[in-house]
Amino acid sequence: MLGGPHFEVKTGRRDTTLHTTDKDADRYLLDADAGVDAFLDNMAKLNINTPQAVALIGSHTVGRVHCVHLVSRLYPTVDITLNATYAEYLKMRCPSPHPDPKAVKYARNDPITPMRFDNNYYKNVMQMKGLLRLDNALYLDPRTKPYVQRMAKDNSYFFQQFVEGMSILTEHNVLTGNKGEIRKHCEWVN
User: Fold this and answer.
1) Which pTM was predicted?
2) Where residue 24 falls among pLDDT bands split at 50, 70, 90?
3) In b/e form, how buried is each residue of 36-56, taking b as 16+ CB within 10 angstroms?
4) Residues that bind Ca(2+), according to the entry (predicted)?
């Protein structure tokens, strides 16, 4: 729906019967200030290689980051890896160094094409306009920089690596045997 790549996902798998919450999912996410080492280590544990990992983080091309996760890059001083002009824009979006965590104050991950799944994220990162510390760090790190550059130039390559990475993720931690259930309707426990 947002213009990203199409790929097949296997059906007929077992899903958990346990109720999960956002907090459950958050256990598996890296901290908003995570660096490239933590990111690549996390991806390697899932058998995802560097270009696939860089492509998966490209999903930041859509969505937004709440101010509570941005302010450490803006206050008391602006992170030196952040584009200065962009930092001023972000300060308008997030004017307080202590935002209310329940407030809906945010900045879009990609202000140019916010509702298109495309390679513009990488173009932003190359201009040091990544919202999270990891975003810009991917361009500064010699292990990931070549992939950021290539994905910025070649949307097809980005899509190819993204599909490969997502295909690996869909195979991670699959329930087997008596664990879980095959749902009649994927949104609800039988």
Assistant:
1) 0.87
2) low
3) beebbeebeeeebbbbbbbbb
4) 61, 110, 113, 118
Q: Is 61 annotated as a binding residue?
A: yes
Asked whether residue 6 is marked as a ligand-binding residue, the answer is: no
pLDDT tens-digit map of 113-172: 888 999 999 999 999 999 999 999 999 999 999 999 999 999 999 999 999 999 998 888
Dmax over CA atoms of the chain, in Å, equals 56
Cβ neighbour number for residue 24 with a 10 Å cutoff: 10
Residue with tokens 């899932």: 46
Whether the CA torsion 81, 113, 32, 86 is positive or negative: it is positive
DSSP 155-171: HHHHHHHHHHHHHHHHT
11 is in an annotated binding site: no
- pLDDT band of residue 29 (cuts 50, 70, 90) is confident
User: What pLDDT score was predicted for residue 101?
Assistant: 82
**How far is the C-alpha of 164 from the C-alpha of 7, rounded, in Å?**
9
On whether the CB atoms of residues 180 and 17 are closer than 8 A, the answer is yes
Q: Provide the angle, in degrees to the nearest 10, between the axes of the packed helices 133-140 and 145-153.
A: 100
Compute the residue count for the chain.
190
60 is in an annotated binding site: yes
Q: Are 174 and 13 in contact (CB under 8 A)?
A: yes
